[in-house]
Design brief:
The protein is of the alpha/beta class. The chain is 27% helix and 24% strand. The protein has eleven helices and 20 strands. The strands form five sheets. The chain has a five-stranded antiparallel β-sheet with strand order 2-1-20-19-18, sandwiched between helices. The protein has a five-stranded mixed β-sheet with strand order 16-8-6-3-17. A hairpin with a 4-residue loop joins strand 4 and strand 5. The chain is globular.
Length: 462
């Protein structure tokens, strides 16, 4: 594969590094010291470090709590009901929903609360997302990303993947107005300003909006002749929606609630003093283990899961999940493992920020280091997409030596493509590799084909 003479990358910056795991020797490299924007291969840094720092069996807990006094004879709670989050990204997530889960989560919670003898709440249902700071998205994410589902930020109380869906009915010819037929879930207070037209075949509709802002703008095009064409966006305030959902579930089964659902953040913004009163626990909801969450993070390239995991690392260490603290801890972890991170920059946990930079030598060295801890390596290796089989590599390298051999994380953003992971050579040696290219001139699909050839070549190494 000769990329050096390829005119499509005449103006691009690109790099490759292939290492032998055992010998720590370089098998092949080109520009391996060049710092480039990695896109989602950046998730490797976060997910591998999290398995070591939190443990594969770590679980999130979400607690239903109350303050004040519960008069169990009259069934009156003289106080508030709280949903206390710890950042669980899987709470009511479609990723972990089973076919048998027919009862909505907040309906299940409402039953549990009613079974405690609570018939009336004199206060409100309050979402407590204080495990994480209120900055749900990194400062370096762009306006074009943050309103879309993949730009949903991480809250101390995540709920329903922090996203919503708009369903469009498109016209038969280009330029026809596309009409919203349904919004799911229906988020109280959210306003949609839609200027979406019928296009040809491509989905080119984008949602714009900031965290906590109830206004969402939608622009662009959806394919012609569609009945219920889905466009996904980020929820303005997932923790508030969680409180609103529980409030609604309780009222549905006859529990009376005096005050409107709210969040601790909103109360603070309104200048209301927080009670320092001890709360009593009604129920604890436990998540899947971290290894299962990381499997989905890497297979789906789930930004929300990766961002949450980064903040969780900070929360476990300092009692507050903040982006920067998480970044500092992860970078220190890799430095302690002997990785020279000079020239690399970490701006988020998932790779959506264009302020991230790393070189392929560093990425390959990190992958090599992971193999030294067998417990971490096993779970991490299992979480990576497999060529020809799963995730973003599912359709690649079929009928070649790379099929079912290469386990790698992919990365893709406008004018960026990357792959990093493991391959077994013809002689059975385990290799690790990283490929990153920025600012190529051809189409993303053509670039993908070129890098696929490169990965097949890596699998064919003797």
């Amino acid at each position: 594969v000769s990329l050096k003479s390829d005119t499509d990358i005449a103006h691009a910056s690109w790099s490759i590094c292939v290492l032998d795991i055992k010998k720590d020797s370089v098998i092949a490299e080109y520009n391996s010291g060049l710092a480039l924007v990695p896109a989602s291969t950046h998730k490797i840094l976060t997910t591998a470090a999290a398995l070591a720092l939190l443990g594969w069996d770590f679980k999130y807990e979400t607690r239903l709590e109350y303050d004040g006094k519960l008069d169990s004879i009259a069934g009156i709670l003289h106080g508030n009901l709280y949903i206390k989050g710890s950042g669980d990204p899987t709470l009511n997530s479609e990723t972990f929903k089973k076919k048998s889960d027919t009862i909505p989560l907040t309906d299940q919670w409402a039953k549990i609360i009613k079974a405690k003898g609570i018939k009336k709440i004199e206060g409100a249902v309050i979402a407590d997302a204080s495990a994480f700071d209120d900055e749900t998205i990194p400062s370096t994410w762009i306006w074009g990303d943050m309103g879309n589902y993949y730009g949903a930020g991480a809250s101390g109380l995540n709920f329903s993947d922090n996203k919503f869906s708009l369903y469009y009915k498109s016209g038969s010819k280009k330029g026809d107005t596309a009409i919203i037929t349904k919004i799911s879930p229906n988020i109280p207070g959210m306003k949609i300003l839609s200027n979406v037209k019928t296009g040809l075949y491509l989905d080119n509709a984008f949602i714009y909006g900031a965290p906590y802002d109830e206004l969402r703008y939608v622009k662009g095009t959806v394919p012609a002749n569609k009945k219920d064409y889905e466009v996904e966006g980020s929820m303005p305030d997932p923790s508030l929606f969680c409180a609103e959902s529980l409030d609604s579930s309780l009222k549905k089964i006859g529990v009376m609630i005096d005050k409107e659902p709210t969040t601790l953040r909103r109360q603070k913004a309104e200048g209301r003093r927080q009670k320092a009163e001890a709360r009593k626990i009604i129920y604890t909801q436990t998540s899947h283990t971290l290894d299962k969450i990381i499997y989905q993070t890497n297979i789906q390239s789930n930004n929300l899961f990766a961002e949450t995991i980064l903040k969780t690392i900070a929360w476990k260490k300092t009692n507050l999940g903040s982006e920067q603290t998480g970044i500092d801890i992860v970078q220190n972890y890799w430095k302690q493992k002997g990785i020279d991170l000079k020239g690399s920059y970490m701006a988020d946990g998932c790779g959506l920020s264009r302020f991230n930079a790393i070189n392929t030598r560093q990425l390959s060295e990190i992958l090599r280091t992971v193999t030294l801890d067998s417990a971490v390596y096993k779970k991490f290796y299992e979480s990576l997409p497999v060529a020809g089989k799963s995730g973003s590599l599912g359709k690649l390298c079929k009928g070649t030596l790379a099929e079912n051999n290469i386990h790698a994380k992919s990365g893709y953003m406008t004018r960026i493509r990357s792959y990093a992971g493991y391959a077994t050579s013809k002689k059975g040696k385990l290799l690790c590799f990283a490929i990153i290219i920025n600012n190529y001139d051809c189409s993303p699909a053509q670039m993908k084909d070129k890098l696929e050839e490169l990965m097949i070549a890596i699998a064919e190494i003797e």
